[in-house]
Amino acid sequence: MENPFDDTYFMKRALQEAEAAYEKGEIPVGAVIVIDNRIIARAHNLTETLNDVTAHAEMQAITSAANFLGGKYLQNCTLYVTLEPCQMCAGALYWSQISRIVYGAKDEQRGYEVMGTTLHPKTKVEGGIMAKEASQLLKRFFIEKRNLN
Question: Which of 88, 98, 95 has the alpha carbon at shortest distance from 54?
């Protein structure tokens, strides 16, 4: 029997979080953290809501998952995030020792790869899962922001 809980399934959940951010006027990035096909953390950007530049979706998800697990390391966990992590988030993910990162859209300007940030050597990364949907949501958000100003 085929496993219904594949990367697309969990990226759709991350996109739901991005939509929640969009509705709040936040840059629409969403994340979920999964262990054993179970979502243990859901988060989205809250930088405007919390007036905190560090309140990225990934940072919120890391904290939530660590609290759920009762420890700071996220070994055997996968982060699904709609946008490639920035260097700040990549640094936090490095220290969390997360096993896998799956992201949607690539961030050509501020993503961890273009910034030269490294992840933990044991972390596996896969990009481009539902990239079109994630990218369209971000583009729609910024077009609307520009039209309001």
Answer: 88
